[in-house]
């Protein structure tokens, strides 16, 4: 197209546009018309969308504001924004649905601040009451009793009240000392009037021997009640007459299911010749689903079992949970469980670190004819015991040990997992359902798993499945001395660096077992006690466990051997 022809077209276009406007509205001034740009050096017409420079200078497209609306931000990290119901997004204790904390705040964002009454020593300020019991007895229609620092030498009975008894400045400054006097049916703090989880004891030191030369009183007494015991220091409580010198729980005729959480329980002494359990849970004719969670239980003692925790299933049907605790340096045992009856009971011991206790770390015993009870021992670290990490014992006839031991780490014990019969006629597992020992890491023990080593029985039967475990650096991985009907199936395990081979148990490659270095992230160090039993990325124990889908990892891939594989691999806390 020539230069002359292009200009003729442009002039014609201008004439047409002016004519159209004039015909349509002679009174209006025609808009300014910009002629197309003509480039004499090119045959192409430059349009307004062909130049990158032109588009960058075009301000017609608005730039989005990168700053979000403040009401859509979770500034305090409590999981909710202002738009989602957080009425104070600068305070993580305040949000829609939060639990009231007796702190003069509207914690749950319901528009109300819960009323409270105050307790304090007379010489330290002005308070509603000077003793805790007088505040409770007043029944002032409040939800919170706030106690200010001091030593309170009194026994406190909740008397069925659904209140939160909370210290104003924490347990180190607020001490309930009790009377220090023997009380067979009580303690420094008492729950015996059907209290529920809404009766809360929060933030005290409970110590009946505080500043006393002698005392003979429990710390906390709970019978047929289910309070919440949290954030307390329970220490130096001494009894000469019964069990549970720190906390005594009894399901006598009704339910008793307290929540015992986030407490420090230490240096308590049950001095009675036949005492069991510094924290003692007795199931008589009632029931319990007691939760013992997130506590540090250490340096306690009892004359017999359960220097840390003892659970005694006497008659009722129950399912208590022991979870996420550190239980250490107690005498004689860390956790002691006794199944006395034939009811459908279950004990769950999960995600605890249990170590350096004097006798067994975990001891579970069975009474005569106990055949329906179950134990679930999962995701625990159990280490450094001169006897057994876990010991399951049948001192009486016709008991059947049932349950699953899964995803535990058993390190540096004399016997990692021990089964004893005391010459009784008993069973491990049933003919139909084997006892399962699955996905554990069992390392640096003298014996990894022992069957009948202390007390053999020629009349007992065994049906056990041992699979997906890693046995590393034990003197002997598995030892069996039971000479009766025995079925111990070992399959899809890894046996590495053990000094001796299995005794009277087939641990061969024919059963899909491996004999390779599992390649832990860090092997156990005896001096520092440091370890990391996660598998390295190139470990041949990855996806080498039992291919059955019931053992798959959470990502649905084939089972990884050891404590960090299988369905419970992500359940470590």
What does this structure look like?
The protein is mostly beta strands and 573 residues long. It has a domain at 3-43. The protein contains three helices and 46 strands. Mean pLDDT is 86; it is low at 1-57.
How are the secondary structure elements laid out?
Layout: H1 3-24, H2 52-56, E1 116-119, H3 132-138, E2 144-147, E3 150-152, E4 156-157, E5 164-167, E6 174-176, E7 189-191, E8 200-202, E9 205-206, E10 220-223, E11 228-230, E12 233-235, E13 238-239, E14 247-251, E15 259-261, E16 264-266, E17 269-270, E18 279-283, E19 291-293, E20 296-298, E21 301-302, E22 309-313, E23 321-323, E24 326-328, E25 335-339, E26 346-350, E27 353-355, E28 362-366, E29 374-378, E30 381-383, E31 388-393, E32 400-401, E33 403-406, E34 409-411, E35 415-420, E36 427-428, E37 435-438, E38 441-443, E39 447-451, E40 461-467, E41 470-472, E42 476-480, E43 486-491, E44 494-496, E45 520-522, E46 532-535
Parallel strand pairs: 1-2, 2-5, 3-6, 4-7, 5-8, 6-9, 7-10, 8-11, 9-12, 10-14, 11-15, 12-16, 13-17, 14-18, 15-19, 16-20, 17-21, 18-22, 19-23, 20-24, 22-25, 23-26, 24-27, 25-28, 26-29, 27-30, 28-31, 29-33, 30-34, 31-35, 32-36, 33-37, 34-38, 35-39, 36-40, 37-40, 38-41, 39-42, 40-43, 41-44
Antiparallel strand pairs: 45-46
């Amino acid at each position: 197209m020539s230069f002359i022809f292009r200009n003729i077209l442009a002039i014609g276009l201008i004439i047409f546009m002016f004519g159209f406007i004039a015909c349509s509205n002679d009174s209006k001034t025609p808009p300014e018309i910009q002629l197309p740009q003509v480039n004499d050096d090119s045959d192409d017409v430059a349009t307004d969308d062909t130049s990158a420079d032109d588009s960058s200078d075009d301000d017609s497209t608005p730039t989005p504001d990168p700053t979000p609306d403040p009401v859509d931000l979770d500034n305090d990290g409590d999981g909710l924004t202002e738009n989602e119901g957080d009425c104070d997004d600068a305070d993580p204790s305040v949000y829609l649905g939060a639990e009231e904390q007796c702190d003069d705040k509207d914690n749950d964002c319901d528009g109300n601040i819960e009323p409270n009454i105050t307790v304090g020593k007379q010489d330290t300020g002005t308070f509603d009451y000077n003793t805790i019991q007088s505040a409770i007895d007043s029944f002032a229609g409040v939800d919170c009793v706030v106690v200010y620092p001091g030593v309170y030498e009194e026994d406190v009975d909740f008397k069925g009240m659904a209140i939160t008894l909370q210290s104003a400045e924490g347990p180190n400054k607020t001490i309930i000392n009790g009377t220090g006097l023997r009380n067979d049916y009580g303690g420094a703090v008492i729950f015996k009037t059907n209290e529920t989880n809404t009766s809360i004891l929060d933030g005290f030191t409970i110590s009946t021997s505080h500043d006393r030369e002698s005392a003979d009183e429990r710390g906390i007494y709970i019978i047929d009640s289910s309070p919440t015991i949290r954030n307390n220091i329970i220490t130096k409580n001494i009894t000469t007459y019964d069990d549970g010198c720190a906390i005594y729980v009894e399901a006598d005729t009704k339910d008793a299911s307290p929540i015992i959480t986030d407490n420090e329980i230490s240096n308590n002494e049950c001095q009675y010749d036949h005492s069991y359990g510094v924290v003692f849970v007795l199931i008589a004719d009632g029931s319990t689903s007691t939760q013992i969670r997130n506590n540090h239980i250490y340096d306690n003692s009892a004359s017999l079992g359960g220097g840390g925790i003892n659970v005694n299933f006497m008659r009722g049907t129950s399912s208590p949970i022991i979870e996420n605790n550190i239980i250490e340096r107690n005498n004689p045992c860390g956790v002691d469980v006794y199944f006395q009856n034939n009811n459908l009971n279950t004990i769950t011991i999960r995600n605890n670190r249990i170590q350096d206790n004097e006798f067994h770390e975990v001891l579970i015993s069975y009474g005569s004819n106990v055949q329906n009870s179950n134990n679930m021992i999962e995701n625990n670290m159990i280490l450094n015991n001169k006897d057994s990490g876990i010991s399951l014992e049948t001192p009486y006839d016709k008991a059947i040990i049932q349950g699953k031991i899964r995803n535990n780490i058993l390190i540096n014990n004399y016997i990692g997992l021990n089964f004893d019969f005391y010459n009784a006629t008993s069973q491990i597992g049933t003919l139909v359902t084997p006892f399962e020992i699955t996905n554990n890491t069992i390392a640096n023990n003298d014996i990894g798993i022992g069957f009948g080593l202390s007390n053999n029985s020629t009349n007992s039967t065994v049906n056990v499945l041992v699979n997906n475990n890693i046995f590393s650096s034990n003197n002997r991985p598995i030892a069996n001395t039971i000479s009766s009907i025995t079925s111990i199936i070992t399959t899809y395990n890894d046996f590495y660096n053990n000094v001796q081979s299995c005794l009277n148990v087939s641990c061969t490659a024919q059963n899909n077992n491996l004999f390779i270095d599992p390649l832990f992230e860090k092997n156990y160090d005896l001096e520092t006690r440091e370890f990391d039993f996660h598998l390295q990325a190139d470990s041949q124990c990855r996806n080498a466990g039992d291919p059955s889908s019931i053992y798959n990892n959470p990502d649905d891939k084939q089972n990884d051997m050891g404590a960090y594989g299988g369905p419970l691999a992500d359940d470590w806390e």
